[in-house]
Design goal:
26% helix, 6-stranded mixed beta sheet, alpha/beta, 8 helices, 5-stranded mixed beta sheet, elongated, disordered N terminus
């Protein structure tokens, strides 16, 4: 992909025709309105075409960002009271390439397209696919804008206190795109480097990942198991958080509910903090005392 911006004969940056729309890859965070940015909501409401999974459509309809399903015809067209017509397309994992190409076609027709991603589209989301497809299909004329959202690491961290106040990293346990040997190497490097580690895609190999980190980190290291952060009862299994230790984390597979689960593994500085209601995790920034602030 080119790292420079060119100017076309008609004076438009990057050779983008003036009659093109824009392809927005929109992160909606956990999907509920309280955790979606104002920018994300505005882009989805004003888009001519919205591409979103059934779950995300449900969230956006409950919020009023999309019109109710009963007001959408069999072709996915919804018409608002002001006459604005919006096409809503259902996204599924097996159709990502097809939908990316369809989005390019819509943009070339002058339509703005909102391609909806949960969390943040650049954190194990779909923004990389859009850019790769644009390269493969010679679609560099397509204006692309990424609209960020709250990812599970941030939502889960907020639910359990302040575990990410020092250096941290994220590791996906999905071996769909890379081999387990590479994932294991990254896990071990992160553990040795004393990063706080946030594990994504914990329905795959999470017990094995915990055992690898245990080789480099003490068993009393704090761990949070977080499900559906920011989704309350609207997620796949309901929002919850559970504090345990690295030595016992693999014994709580009943707390790991699937795609909406992330694990936050503390480093040697991460501490538990308790009040009358619950236990939190806190990782001091550089181990500083209050007097250092």
């Amino acid at each position: 992909m080119s790292g420079t911006e060119s100017e076309s004969a008609d004076g438009t940056a990057g050779g983008t025709p003036d009659d093109h729309g824009t392809l927005y890859v929109v992160g909606i965070g956990p999907g509920l309105p309280d955790h979606m940015t104002k920018r994300a909501k505005e882009v989805i409401e004003s888009a001519d075409v919205v591409i979103a999974s059934s779950l995300y459509q449900e969230f956006l309809r409950d919020d009023g960002t999309l019109l109710p399903e009963e007001e959408t015809d069999d072709d996915g067209i919804a018409v608002r009271d002001d006459g604005f017509e919006q096409e809503i397309i259902r996204s599924t994992m097996g159709r990502q390439i097809e939908l990316a190409r369809a989005a390019f076609d819509h943009v070339r027709e002058g339509k703005d397209v909102a391609h909806v991603s949960g969390g943040d589209p650049s954190v194990y989301g779909k923004s990389d696919l859009i850019f790769k497809m644009a390269d493969e299909d010679d679609a560099t004329d397509i204006p692309i804008e990424i609209v960020p959202g709250i990812t599970a690491a941030l939502g889960g961290s907020a639910n359990v206190g302040a575990p990410l106040c020092n250096d941290f990293c994220t590791v996906s346990l999905s071996d769909k795109w890379r081999g387990w040997d590479e994932i294991e190497e990254k896990l071990r490097a992160a553990a040795i480097s004393d990063f706080v580690i946030v594990l994504y895609n914990c329905w795959r190999n999470y017990e094995q990942a915990v055992e690898i980190v245990r080789e480099e980190r003490t068993d009393d290291a704090a761990v949070a198991i977080v499900n559906d952060a920011g989704r309350a009862d609207a997620g796949r299994n309901g929002e919850s958080q559970f504090i345990t230790t690295l030595g016992e984390a693999a014994d709580h597979d009943d707390k790991v509910s699937g795609m909406g689960t992330s694990l936050i593994i503390g480093n040697h500085e991460t501490e538990t903090w308790r009040n009358d209601d619950r236990t939190y995790l806190v990782t001091p920034r550089g181990g500083r005392d209050v007097d250092d602030f």
